[in-house]
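USER:
Make up one protein:

ASSISTANT:
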Amino acid sequence: MTGETIDAFHFGKFHVVQPATGGHRSGMDAMLLAAMVAGEGRLKVADLGAGAGAAGLAVASRLDEAEVTLVERSPDMAAFARKTVALAENAHLASRVSVIEADVTLRGKARMAAGLEDEAFDNVIMNPPFNAAADRRTPDALKADAHAMTEGLFESWIRTAGAILKPGGELSLIARPESVAEIIAACGKRFGGLEITLVHPRKEEPAIRMLVSALKGSRARLVFRAPFVMHLAGSHKFAGQIDDFNNGRACYRRLISKGVRR
């Protein structure tokens, strides 16, 4: 990595310290993921694979009482997350945001010793590595670590989410659409009430992302929601609702509320 940048999000309501030329840099994926957290009061939110902390801080920025734990395995990216929390520009959020340097795939006593205790969180958000092994991989080792999917990744990450969420707690994730079968399988009997939304760059183009929400212990059926289109026709301008999500002006609420079983 060479250098770092300090980048403003939500029109300057919070800032993130990110690697300038190496590693993962957060953008729209993180903001869409953060928009999936809805609720009131002192929600406890875990951001698994948090990187420099953009998604988690976006939650804390929009929800005034939310307490966010950033969980990151890479020592380098965890260091960026700590710098992010320590920024003077984020002083109004710092008391509600903490950083845990730990592997999301830890199990049992090792996971709890790292600070991820059973049934401790109301919401878990995650943006797991999404590049398949056959995809062209970046020569940047830190970026590759953040982007390269390993076998059984969704099973291990979603298993952890199931362990640390309270009963009825909500899992939210963003991934590529081709991972849909693996994600549904990993949710298994742990989660129900899956709500899946495809995200298209433009109306005539294939989806490039998918938003998935699920409730721990729910028996509700899977729902495919109306898709999102990111950009207006013939333009790079974001559609109104997407722009609201990106800038913390709105949240993307579930159709089936927490605690409702079907």
User: Anything to note?
Assistant: The chain has a mean pLDDT of 91.
